[in-house]
Amino acid sequence: MAVLKRILSFFVSILLLVAKLLCLAVRLVLSLFLLVVQMVLVIFHAGSSL
C-alpha cells in the first residue's frame, strides 16, 4: 500500500512539473508570437508611410 502511494505521489509531482513546463512554453510562444506581430505591423506601417 505504501509503495502504491509513493508511486502515485511521484506521478502527481511529474504531472505538476509537466503542467508547469507546458504553461511556461505556452507563455513563451504567445509572447514570441505577439513580438512577431508587432514587428510585422511596424514594418508594414513603415512601408506604407514611405
From TrEMBL:
Superkingdom to which the source organism belongs: Bacteria
Q: Report what the protein is called.
A: Uncharacterized protein
According to its UniProt entry, this protein's organism is: Candidatus Blautia stercorigallinarum
Please spell out the taxonomic lineage of the organism that makes this protein: Bacteria, Bacillati, Bacillota, Clostridia, Lachnospirales
